[in-house]
Amino acid sequence: MTLLVRTTLITILLVVTLSGHAVNRLRQNQLIGNIIKNALESYHYLHLKVGDDLSGKAFDQYLKRIDFGKQFLLASDVTNLSKYKLKMDDQLLSGKLKLLEESKVIMVERIRQIDEFRKAFFKKGTSFNSKRRLELDSKKRKYLGSIKELNDLWSRIFTYETVVSYLSLEDEQSGEKDKEKKGKHKKKKIKKSKPVKKMSVKEMKIEAQRLTSKKYQQLFSRLLKDDYDDFVEKFMNSVSTVFDPHTTYLPPKRKEDFDIDISGSLEGIGAVLQEDGLYIKVVKIVPGGAAWRQKDLEAEDKILAVAQGAGEPVDLVGMRVDNAVRYIRGKKGTEVRLTLKKSDGTRKTISIIRDMVRIGESYAKSSIILHKKSGHKVGYIRLPKFYRDFGGTMSRRNCSDDVHKEIVRLKKEGIKGLILDLRGNGGGALEDARKMSGLFIKQGPIVQVKDHTGKVDILKDRDVAIEYGGPLLVLINRFSASASEIVAAAMQDYGRGVVVGGEFSHGKGTVQAVLDLNQGPLINMIGPKIGALKVTIQKFYRVTGGSTQYRGVTPDIILPDVFSGVENRENDLDYSLKWDETRRLRFSRWQGKPLNLKKLASKSNKRVKKSKGLKLVNRSLAYMAKRRKQTEVTINLAKKRIEDSKNKKMLKEFKQDEVNPDLVVSHFEKSLMEAEEIRQEDRKQWQEDLKERKKEWVEGLQRDPVLEESLFIIGDMIS
Known about the structure:
alpha+beta, Pdz3 Domain, 2-enoyl-CoA Hydratase, Chain A, domain 1, 7-stranded mixed sheet, 21 strands, globular
């Protein structure tokens, strides 16, 4: 959760000695460094001091930022730079960023050396029969001792990427990718791809080498274009992220991008992206966007390349996110092809038709679901995010009022139980988390918010009315964060409902404020803008006293989760704030029918063992866990082809394609999907689209084994 705030930092500026109006590089560094140091020490939740201990940790973070894969710096380079390990705090204040200057010179030299090796390597030609292997996990690599060893590493990287490129060309020749695309977009009007040029094995090998060489030529060229300001950003963020991973320095250009993306939307495909080492990683999928509807792009995917329609792909590895989005964005209705590295290590090319985010898709939606085996009518509400119209752009809608309306409508239909689905909901408006929780309880505290001074604010539901008092089940997964965790935790602590899902939720229980560092008369007088600082200032605590930070919410009943094992939670991040407790509040637990959680869990466990869909999820999890451990890969073409074939076969087996006829879905809420303004000439096409969206909605529910088990659980609660 992020707050945009303005603050005058005049007192912080007074520690900087300034002369005249001109600010040279040294004084600008000194200005930024002093402001950041004082802002961190004054406003951050932890109240840490920037000293030698923090400097040592920041040094390690800096090395990760300039050479994430340990594939440029030698061990001797790291030893040479280590003389500054405990001096980053001093350099921050003095403006003399010696670590930055020396590391930049070394990186430029190493990149040029490796680029020269690239030219020689591809001139000689790639061997497709190598018996060597490549370690992909940078955590398992060591800094190498010589240029010879570095060249050997890069020869493995070049060979591996050439083999991957060859197999991709082989797929195109076999027509697999074209068939997949036709299946995906049979109802879409898109520009037809050019016919695949038939190539011999020899021609494909030559083309694979050309594409790989070009890819790395572009990568090295981009890295060499990193200027002094890029390294300043890396230096400053190496310090800030030691406080916690959500505390970051935003230089002026990044601040502009942040202002655009704070709404959670990236025009074109509907995804939020960030840099992760050399890669562009998908942080989240925006509800209502093109990628959200298409369903192939997922959080934690890394985008390796992007192509416009039938055009040649542009490699994104090593590209800054602000440059990458220029290739991904585009006009509505145009096709973009993304080459992805999935969380299990597999590569996949997908096609997305760019579109604006459909506001209606991000609203709460509901249905009535009846399972033939239980016969109970159960209300189902899916909430993709905690939206609230602060600026009057969404007809003044907010999610708590919309959920309220859906509950009223579902009650009129005689539902016996209610499922609130918060899976994939990354949070949003705190006010709506408070109000929504209040729909299910009489009154009382919902969440505690502690700030960096130790002051605790208690957000309460003061409305004695209970909108829904029947059996309640809340669905979560590891992408349920922030406001979602507050609602789930409140229902759990009050004993109001059963929380069901994977092992735990995301675990983000902090609030960030964006401090505008350009405020104050002194800064306005002395020169260029210096950006902003996003700093963690508050932490959420449950009414029972425990934080939602780090640990998240553990469900009462744990079901297999397709995302288990993926390192995407808060506790997977370096220096994430740890779990702690504050005082427990006085509150009255739910006085309705008590929940026998032990009995409910026991019955559920027996069903899970027999569930065809959930057994498939468990098999998939075991297979993916095994693959994630296998970080050392072959660079031999024949062996890689066999591995890829086996993997494709297994992934096809794990796909949940079967529609469950026992789930009868009815009373789809049409009005919530008619939120877009439709021109008269587009209405026919829109009606066809709405029909297709309804079908996708119903079949999506019928293919969900977790939802089916949730219906059984709530059936047990009703009985």
